Amino acid sequence: MNKTAIITGATSGIGASFAKKLASQGYDLFITGRRIDIIQKLADKLSKKYKIKVKIIIAELSNNNHIEKLVRFIHKLKNIDILVNNAGFGLFEYFSEVPIDDCEKMIYVHCLAAIKLIHAVIPKMIKQGYGSIINVSSLAAVCPVKKDAVYSGTKSFLNTFSESLNMELGNKGIIIQSLCPGFTSTDFHKKIKINSEDMKKLRHFKWMSADEVVEYSLKCLRKNKVICIPGWRNRILVKLTSLLPKSLYYKIVQLFS
To answer: Which of 39, 68, 149, 186 is deepest in the core (most CB within 10 A)?
Structure first.
């Protein structure tokens, strides 16, 4: 029986990098996305290059009907080795200026979709006696900034949720990871249309490639590391942030954002 991986949000960026890496390791893939033309090219390329099966499921994970469609599909699968909950998006606006519908969509994509998909795969993984679940969180989960309230909140949820799941499922052979990348070179920031002044501020940070993030994630997976933070600069930042009094952290963020 071939190894299988489900990856949401695999059209580009970190999701596409997970698809490429796992395909190179012989996994058959079930990948979701919204842009059929782009994801189809990725599927064709990977199936041809690595001689694996790639099935595309077009899904909008802010829509509960689409989530349920994906859950029903999962129930039909015989085995699942890896689930990567990568689908997500940003807003980068002040909370008071964000339409509440957009906030609701973010909660659906980042939280409810992940919960429902994990709930669907866990029984299969318990029966198998093995499996891995990677929830793509963010450095913003532990280092919140302005213009990121709902994003930071939902990603923080993924961290805590993953830690709790790890304690529940660790003795059943299931590995849980919450991946917290910092600034990563993808089309994420183009989609949220960050203005030129904000982009100038972001240039001061060390950016990683999506492939580097995925490599480190899989390295953490082999070590059963639940909270995975790619990039030594990011890990130092998190450590320093944890040592600062919250009031001082808030003042620093005000100065640099």
So the answer is: 39
